[in-house]
């Protein structure tokens, strides 16, 4: 018989699986909607109508996009992903990926500062309290690079900055991990946006499965590492 997981850890595994399944179902729904000619035509009409306004304000448009991307890295209920197709349509893949990456770095730095200087009461109002408490009890006092890297890949993007700030993880370590992890995720998000524009529903699902599979694998490796280091509590 396979060993049973401790209840708190099992609850967290289920949380991550439910989140991954919900995101995958959302991508499947979007892919299905892309097959409706009227909806796909309406999407392109919307993008075509927005492009002249964005082109008329190139600097302001980019600043707003970076700011909203940063906000999405701090708040669980807000996502900049809905803006990515419009950004790709206006600025291309490379420009959008760079702006998205810069926005996520900015948001992560602000989340870190919030955790470090404003403390736990503020953080508990911005992230799921149960999830934050679970990992605050299990992360080691001195977070090393491999643990920080796994945590950044495994968790929702808004969580690591707040918790690493609370734990006083060196900012240069967090920033290095953040920059390394968010670069491929930014590229993947841009490819998802482009697949939406090009009506490539199958490619969209492949990218979603790859991204979510990577995160779930990181969750598994993270828990094994925490348990091996004595950080897991039953």
Automatic annotation (TrEMBL):
Originating organism: Agrilutibacter terrestris
Domain of life: Bacteria
A cellular component annotation (GO) from this entry: plasma membrane
Keywords for this protein: Membrane, Transmembrane, Transmembrane helix
Residue ranges of the TM segments: 60-84, 96-115, 145-166, 173-197, 203-219
Sequence ranges assigned to domain VTT in this UniProt record: 81-194
Name of the protein this chain belongs to: VTT domain-containing protein
